[in-house]
């Protein structure tokens, strides 16, 4: 795949609110046509960063470039960006069509052309024929669609989405996720999504920037982020990660020799330590689904350890086991798919656990 | 007596106390006697014709309407600025400034009137309808700010940002989005300040100079017993007009809210 051109570039962006340092040296690029997510807990600066692109927030130092142009001094109403707000910000006193066509007011199109373009935009978001409805009478999901149509009708270079799905119920949210992905592929516009929902970010994005306290902790594609988080913080924010203490014995030629509690002496590849790790206080991390509880007659394809089951949580399709590997103090979580015919084990049972050194990540 | 019976008595007594005097008004306005006393002697509309023949009355009505309309528009305009500033922007000593602006709400009117009079005379300004308007704007503005602040407060800030984001200027955003959405609040504000100004006596009495206003005229008429039934007729007309005005304003306010799909918070009727 050829590298797409840069659409947005942050160059050492800082933002202060009085003494509060909201953005602490953001440097990143977002590519044209990419579905990009800013993911982080509330107060991490993700919305602030989005609003610096829209022009609603000024920056204290650094530069925000859109399509090669420095946005310093360019007000929000002249930027090639449009935004879908968390509250949708549908104008309640206007009809659906008036809302969607609002951005075209300045263009002074002939009535027929305006109606055509509004109709097209409504059709694109699946609201064909809703034009004459009063905007305030719409459901949450419909408002969301109107907000999308209203922002996309201007054919912006970048569409900014500020937690657009957080107000919807779970079913609706999952449906809209799929529709947003489809829409983004259809129009080819760069989408930038702000979300605190890691699952949403993983499902929708080409690339994700994980933010904590005004800084980007890791910027990667969803799979890298999940498989090779570069810090314990990122690992804990995205999904569940088990940790066991480990000691680094030696590092040479792209190989790292470690001794990990419960796993013994191991050799890891350098890429299994995406964050810098050295000396004391290191740990190996692994996802609950990378370990397997072996049932009678099964054999491990790679390595195998003995463990005691300390807690069983049954979820229907899945069972979560908290097990303690021999030679460790703290239980770890293993998730098992409840395949037909396989029994759910009891608390206190001794069992064998299969694992693989390749699934481990080394953290400081 | 059944449960809650005393509350019923209390409620009925309260309403009687409030409205009985107002019901007396038309009764004596249409009564064919100079003396205000029961029993009623007969039906007559002569007090109303006598009212229309009063030249000072029509001047007083014109003056009062002019003062009330001008003051309510000025006070509401000032109120819009202040409410917008206090709800949307942060600036140093905001609480202190807003407190000072709202102070006339609790300041005795007689103090306001006397001090205004002293200052105006000291400055050599001659008293006229405009000096009354000045005083009325002063006392009405806090009410307007209180009403308009809640209207501006309930406005989602992203609505403005959305309009701006879609290419509108700050001015056109205000005209296209903010103004229509706070219109119910503006109507309430105009109505309240119009009513306050129309029946305001103390400031008008001190600052009007030789110009009569309606409340001042009515007060002056009570010196003449034969004029009292005319005042009753005038009062009747005013009550009917007030009810009419409130109804019309409330209709427009509710229509505005229904159109914007908002929740009805407050209002008069």
Spell out the CATH superfamily of the largest domain in chain A: P-loop containing nucleotide triphosphate hydrolases
Question: What is the number of helices of chain A?
Answer: 8
- Span between N and C termini of chain B? 32 Å
Q: So, CATH architecture of chain B?
A: Orthogonal Bundle
Order of helices and strands of chain A: EEEHEEEHHHEHEHEEHHEEEEEEEEEE
Supply the number of structural domains of chain B: 1
Characterize the overall form of chain A.
Answer: globular
Give the biggest beta sheet of chain A: 6 strands, mixed
Major sheet of chain B: size, sense and barrel closure?
Answer: none
Helix and strand arrangement:
The complex is a heterodimer of chains A (364) and B (269).
Chain A: E1 6-17, E2 20-31, E3 35-39, H1 46-54, E4 61-66, E5 69-70, E6 81-84, H2 96-100, H3 111-124, H4 140-152, E7 158-162, H5 170-187, E8 190-195, H6 198-204, E9 207-212, E10 215-220, H7 222-227, H8 232-237, E11 242-252, E12 255-260, E13 264-269, E14 282-286, E15 292-294, E16 303-314, E17 318-325, E18 332-337, E19 350-355, E20 361-363
Parallel strand pairs in A: 3-8, 3-9, 6-7, 7-8
Antiparallel strand pairs in A: 1-2, 1-4, 4-5, 9-10, 11-12, 11-14, 12-13, 14-20, 15-19, 16-17, 16-19, 17-18
Helix pairs in contact in A: 3-4
Chain B: H1 5-29, H2 46-52, H3 55-88, H4 94-102, H5 109-123, H6 129-153, H7 157-165, H8 170-198, H9 202-207, H10 214-221, H11 228-260
Helix pairs in contact in B: 1-11, 2-11, 3-6, 3-8, 3-10, 6-8, 7-8, 8-11
What does this structure look like?
The complex is a heterodimer of chains A (364) and B (269). In chain A, 21% of the residues lie in helices and 36% in strands. Chain A is α+β, with helices and mostly antiparallel strands and 364 residues long. Chain A has 2 domains: 6-231, Rossmann fold, CATH 3.40.50; 240-363, Beta Barrel (OB fold (Dihydrolipoamide Acetyltransferase, E2P)), CATH 2.40.50. In chain A, the strands form 4 sheets. A 6-stranded mixed beta sheet of chain A has the order 6-7-8-3-9-10, with helices on both faces. The longest helix of chain A is centred in the middle third of the chain and has 18 residues, at 170-187. The model of chain A has no long low-confidence stretch (mean pLDDT 90). With 269 residues, chain B is mostly helical. Chain B starts with a helix and ends in a 9-residue tail after the last helix. The relative contact order of chain B is 0.14. Chains A and B meet through strand 6 of A and helix 7 and helix 8 of B.
């Amino acid at each position: 795949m050829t590298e797409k051109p840069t659409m947005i570039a942050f160059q050492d962006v800082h933002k202060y609110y009085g003494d509060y340092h909201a953005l602490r040296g953001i440097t990143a690029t977002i590519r044209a046509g990419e579905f990009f997510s800013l993911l982080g807990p509330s107060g991490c600066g993700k919305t602030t960063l989005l609003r610096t692109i829209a022009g609603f927030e000024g920056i204290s130092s650094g530069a925000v470039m859109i399509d090669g142009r420095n946005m310093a001094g360019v007000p929000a109403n002249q930027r090639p960006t449009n935004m879908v707000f968390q509250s949708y910000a549908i104008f309640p006193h206007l009809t659906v069509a008036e809302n969607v066509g609002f951005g075209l007011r300045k263009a002074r199109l002939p009535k027929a052309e305006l109606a055509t373009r509004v109709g097209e935009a409504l059709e694109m978001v699946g609201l064909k024929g809703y034009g004459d409805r009063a905007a305030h009478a719409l459901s949450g999901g419909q408002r969301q669609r109107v907000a999308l149509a209203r922002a996309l009708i201007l054919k912006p270079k970048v569409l900014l989405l500020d937690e657009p799905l957080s107000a919807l119920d779970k079913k609706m949210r999952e449906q809209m996720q799929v529709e947003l992905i489809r829409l983004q592929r259809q129009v080819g516009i760069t989408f930038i999504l702000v979300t605190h929902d890691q699952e949403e970010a993983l499902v929708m994005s080409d690339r994700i920037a994980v933010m904590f306290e005004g800084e980007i902790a890791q910027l990667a594609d969803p799979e890298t982020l999940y498989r090779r988080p570069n810090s314990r913080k990122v690992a804990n924010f995205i999904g569940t990660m088990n940790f066991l203490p480990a000691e680094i014995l030696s590092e040479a030629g792209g190989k790292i020799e470690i001794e990990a509690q419960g796993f013994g002496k191991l050799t890891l590849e350098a890429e299994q330590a995406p964050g810098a790790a050295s000396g004391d206080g290191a740990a190996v991390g692994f996802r609950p689904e990378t370990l397997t509880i072996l049932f009678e007659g099964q054999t491990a394809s790679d390595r195998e350890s003995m463990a005691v089951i300390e807690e069983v949580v049954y979820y229907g399709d899945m069972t979560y086991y908290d097990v303690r590997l021999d030679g460790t103090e703290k239980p770890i979580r293993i998730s098992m798919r409840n395949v037909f015919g396989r029994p759910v084990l009891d608390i206190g049972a001794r069992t064998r656990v299969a694992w693989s050194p390749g699934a481990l990540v080394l953290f400081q | 007596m059944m449960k809650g019976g005393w509350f019923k008595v209390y409620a009925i007594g309260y309403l009687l106390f409030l409205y009985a005097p107002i019901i007396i008004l038309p009764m004596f306005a249409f009564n064919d006697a100079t003396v205000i006393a029961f029993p009623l002697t007969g039906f007559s509309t002569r007090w109303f014709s006598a009212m229309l023949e009063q030249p000072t009355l029509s001047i007083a009505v014109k003056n009062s309407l002019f003062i009330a309309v001008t003051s309510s528009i000025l006070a509401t305009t000032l109120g819009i600025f202040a409410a917008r500033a206090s709800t949307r922007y942060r600036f140093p000593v905001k609480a202190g400034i807003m407190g000072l602006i709202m102070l006339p709400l609790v300041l005795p009117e007689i103090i306001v009137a006397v001090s205004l009079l002293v200052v105006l005379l000291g400055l050599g300004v001659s008293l006229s309808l405009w000096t009354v308007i000045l005083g009325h704007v002063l006392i009405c503005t806090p009410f307007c700010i209180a009403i308009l602040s809640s209207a501006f407060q309930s406005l989602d800030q992203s609505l403005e940002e959305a309009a701006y984001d879609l290419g509108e200027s700050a001015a056109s955003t205000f005209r296209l989005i903010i103004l229509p959405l706070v219109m119910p609040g503006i109507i309430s504000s105009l109505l309240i300040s119009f009513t306050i100004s129309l029946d305001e006596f103390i400031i008008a009495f001190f600052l009007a100079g030789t110009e009569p206003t309606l409340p001042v005229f009515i007060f002056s008429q009570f010196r003449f017993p034969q004029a009292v039934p005319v005042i009753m007729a005038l009062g009747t007309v005013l009550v009917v007009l007030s009810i009419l005005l409130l109804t019309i304003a409330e209709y427009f306010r509710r229509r505005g809210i229904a159109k914007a799909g908002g929740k009805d918070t407050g209002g008069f009727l």
